[in-house]
Write a structure and sequence with these properties.
The complex is a heterodimer. By secondary structure, chain A is mostly beta strands. In chain A, 6% of the residues lie in helices and 57% in strands. Chain A has a domain of 265 residues. The radius of gyration of chain A is 27 Å and the shape is globular. Classes of the chains: A mainly beta, B alpha+beta.
Chain lengths: 568, 300
């Protein structure tokens, strides 16, 4: 791996040298960025922080990209010495995790090496990186993108997927085609007011049958069809995916086909927006290694249909993780902006004079409502299932079991030129057994209030204060989990260089008195042009961190954190 | 670009393997060969104890444990189902240097697979009871401490079975075909996959055995090479493979379900005494390996 890094850097240096010799020519550009996160861990058995034998851990990333005309090449060097707590322990050591070269010519783009890619919504195929999750299923192989005719876009992929510093057992190959009807001719472009995009994909994986107990399919294919419509402020997008028999550790090696349907529709106009999503997933875990677990080697991405929150308590205590084995989910979202009303002039009767103008509503108010829910599908187990079909299911019929629901309201209001607030309320229902894969816990019903006030002292100094409270429903049919929480945050920013923050999370409602703990955390950040440094110290509680319905468990920790990002 | 299209279309065409029946072709499947019998209502209420005694004719300690098992069997009757599995090169291979003694090879491919799966590299004699873990201080070690044989067997005596098994088996003297059928009745919902195994045993084979004089049947006297040693319940054939056939899928069985499966085998070795044949059928948990019920039947 180190050898290949040197070769690639050598190639880049070669380009540079060559170009410098011919001063008049384009020498290309090198860009990149670096990120390092270091954490020193104190022992803290009170909060259940795991003991870290190394005391200090580090994750580091460096991207270097070279572009010249229609050619691009790059590498990413990564270090996990050892991986920060909560990251998959498979990341260990240093190496060249990502390397690629690509060029485009005559409507054809070729990439060799690593690449990220997505077909449609991603339900059939998505290779992507989400660094905060430690998620990276980059492809390693070849990709072709070709535009044979105006409005027609083709992609072909072939390769293996990244797992830590190596690649998985399976080979992934796929094609994707998209036709933008409007672009097919000038006349269509001019006449059609509705933009129509039709698409289709086929993806398959190969993995050797290494199982003596069953005849396993070595080639598992999936296909997808999709339709997107856009007109004015209205949009409609739907995709259906079907996967043939794919017995795996995720589905207990059943041979049932997988299905997924996603419908997104939205409407927006000035000051108003509404969207609705519906999704059905059935047996749609699709990995390039049937024996893998956690977030390793997923070939597809199952979109979340619940709102991703940013405030600490709703974001990290009870976020929803999409259930690849099956769920039926709905989401509705409405936002409305009460328009500013201008100063009104009232004429004094019988004169040409006007009364002193007054403001009807000087500043705008935004209200957002969001509701989402995910249900277990209505299934019936097959008895004496010698063909291992597992169960039968009705196509879009939810059962009575609610995996998750979230009703939330957000009101944003600017009170003066310098003062604004955001108030949010969340009512969540969270099936801990299902979402966290536990047994014997139950359903948590949490109600969360958040008040976020920002005051601009002057053009450079801003103070922001957050107060959050989470109360759990203590009725006998709900699980109290850790009980009630309260959080306070003060953030002071001196633009454009400094920020200071202090946070306290207090689990004051824990049933066990010894666990009514304060989690203090303070941080300081400094931004100098393209460089950003931050240092934090204190306790961080255990929680779940999710991005787009994909989650990782974050263990409790106590210590000093240093982060640096830099771009060039 | 035509080549690219052809390549992509080819990918699409070759990319799927649809499996209609995930079960590997089962060795010794009786379907269409042996007529299925009719079973009467099974009323068994006890969990039987499958005793797998890993042994060898050149294992001088083995007669002692075999006699202990035999003695317990005489007290427990049908609830105890012993099997002698001759395994390893060291203890069960023909001993050239001792010819003409110890020249019979009682080892079977299935027996070796079972040994390697359950107790790889264990010394002999080694005894496994219902393939249950937890009898020793070492998690995952399935062979019991031999000194605890009696008490460990007794620990099963009051157990209720999760399934009932009964078999109806036949031997055809003209074709030398063994047909074995088992009816498995579910008594408790089962959360894991389970498989059914048919073993064909030959009982009381008289042949050489090395003996150290400790704990064996007194009729053999003291230490030495015993010529007329009686090898009991010797495994001859794993009729439907050493792993058997999966008959229950996790979480899909219901109490009262009855599953009938058969297996067949034609004996070609003329040295086997067909009037000493015995069928043992048992169901084990594919995840934990534990045998949840066993049943034995003499063929004659």
């Amino acid at each position: 791996m180190k050898q290949s890094a040197l070769i690639l850097l050598g190639i880049l240096a070669g380009f540079n040298t060559f170009s410098q010799e011919e001063n008049n020519k384009d020498i290309g550009q090198i860009h990149g960025n670096v990120q390092t996160d270091v954490q020193y861990y104190n022992e803290d058995s009170l909060i259940g922080a795991p003991v870290v034998p190394e005391k200090m851990l580090m994750n580091g990333f460096a991207n270097i990209n070279y572009t010249r005309g229609n050619f691009a090449a790059g590498i990413r060097y990564e270090s996990y010495l050892n991986a920060l707590q909560g990251f998959p322990t498979g990341y260990r050591g240093s190496g060249l995790a990502y390397k690629y070269a690509s060029y485009s010519i005559d409507n054809l783009e070729v990439t060799a090496g690593n690449y990220y890619e997505q077909f449609g919504s991603g339900m059939i195929f998505r290779a992507y990186e989400e660094r905060q999750l430690g998620y990276d299923n980059a492809m390693d192989g070849f990709r072709l993108k070709y535009k044979p005719y105006r409005g027609v876009y083709l992609k072909g992929i072939y390769g293996k997927q990244r797992i830590f510093f190596t690649t998985g057992a399976g080979i992934v190959r796929g094609i994707n085609g998209e036709v933008v009807i409007n672009e097919l001719s000038d006349s269509l472009e001019a006449k059609m007011k509705t933009r129509i995009v039709l698409g289709g994909s086929f993806v398959s994986k190969y993995q050797e049958d290494d199982n003596q107990a069953f005849i396993l399919p070595e080639n598992v294919g999936a296909f997808a069809g999709r339709l997107n419509l856009y007109r004015g402020g209205f949009s409609f997008a739907t995709e259906y995916v079907e996967k043939i028999n794919d017995p795996s550790a995720d589905n207990n090696f059943i041979y049932k086909k997988g299905q997924a349907l996603l419908i997104n529709t939205a409407y927006s106009q000035r000051g108003f927006g509404a969207s609705f999503s519906a999704k059905k997933i059935d047996n749609m875990s699709f990995r390039s290694d049937r024996n893998e677990g956690q977030t390793n080697l997923f070939m597809n991405y199952l979109p979340s249909t619940s709102k991703q929150h940013t405030y600490n308590l709703p974001a990290t205590l009870y976020p929803y993780a999409v259930q690849p084995n099956g769920e039926i989910a709905l989401e509705g979202d409405v936002s409305y902006k009460l328009a500013r009303k201008r100063k009104k002039k009232i004429q004094i009767a019988g004169t040409d004079e006007f009364k002193k103008p007054f403001n009807l509503r000087k500043y705008s108010t935004e209200i957002s409502l969001n509701w989402s829910a995910a249900f277990a599908p209505d299934t019936t187990n097959i008895r004496n299932d010698s063909l291992r079909q597992g169960y039968t299911t009705k196509f879009f019929t939810p059962s009575n079991r609610v995996y998750f629901s979230d009703f939330n309201v957000e009101i944003k209001r600017k009170l003066t030129k310098d003062l604004k607030f955001v108030y949010s309320f969340f009512n969540m229902r969270y099936d801990k057994d299902i979402i966290e894969g536990k047994t014997g816990t139950g359903v948590v019903n949490a109600r969360i209030h958040v008040l976020d006030v920002t005051y601009n002292i002057n053009d450079e100094n801003t103070i922001r204060v957050e107060a959050q409270h989470l109360g759990v429903n203590k009725k006998s049919n709900f699980y109290e989990d850790q009980g009630n929480w309260a959080t306070a945050l003060v953030e002071y920013t001196i633009s454009p260089k400094w920020f200071f923050a202090a946070l306290d999370q207090f689990n004051y409602g824990n049933k066990e008195a010894g666990k009514r703990i304060h989690y203090f955390y303070g941080s300081v950040g400094y931004i100098q042009n393209a460089n950003r440094f931050s240092i934090g110290y204190g306790r961080q509680r255990a929680g779940i961190f999710c991005v787009g319905g994909v989650c990782r468990v974050v263990p409790a920790s106590n210590g000093l954190t240093f982060s640096m990002t830099s771009t060039f | 670009m035509k080549h690219i299209y052809i390549l992509l279309i080819a990918i699409a065409l070759v990319g799927c393997d649809k499996v209609d029946d995930p079960r590997p072709s089962v060795i010794g499947n009786a379907d269409g060969i042996c007529p299925a019998p009719t079973f009467t209502q099974n009323t068994d209420t006890l969990r039987n104890v499958l005793v797998e005694d890993f042994t060898g004719h050149y294992c001088n300690n083995c007669p002692g444990i075999a006699y202990a098992i035999d003695t317990i069997k005489s007290n427990m009757g049908k609830q105890l189902i012993p099997i002698g599995l001759h395994v390893t090169d060291q203890f069960a291979a023909p001993v050239t240097a001792k010819a003409p003694k110890f020249q019979t090879d009682f080892r079977t491919a299935g027996g070796l697979d079972i040994y390697n799966d359950l107790i790889p590299s264990a010394g002999l004699p080694a005894v496994v009871l219902n393939r249950k873990d937890g009898f020793t201080l070492t998690p995952g070690r399935l062979n019991i401490y031999n000194s605890n044989l009696s008490s460990d067997i007794r620990s099963f005596i009051g157990d209720s079975p999760k399934v009932r098994i009964q078999t109806k088996s036949t031997f055809d003297n003209t074709t030398n075909r063994v047909c074995a059928y088992a009816e498995v009745e579910i008594l408790t919902p089962l959360a894991d996959d389970h498989s059914l195994v048919f073993y064909l045993l030959e009982d009381s084979i008289v042949d050489w055995q090395l003996y150290n004089g400790n704990g064996g049947n007194p009729i053999y006297g003291g230490a030495g090479d015993i010529q007329d040693y009686v090898h009991k319940h010797v495994l001859r054939k794993c009729m439907n493979g050493w792993q058997g056939k999966q008959i229950i899928s996790a979480g899909t069985s219901a109490v009262g379900d009855k599953i009938v499966e058969g297996s067949t085998f034609v004996i070609t070795d003329g040295t086997w005494r067909t009037n000493h044949l015995e069928i043992v059928a048992f169901v084990y948990n594919n995840t934990t390996k534990e045998v949840i019920q066993a049943y034995s039947e003499n063929l004659n």
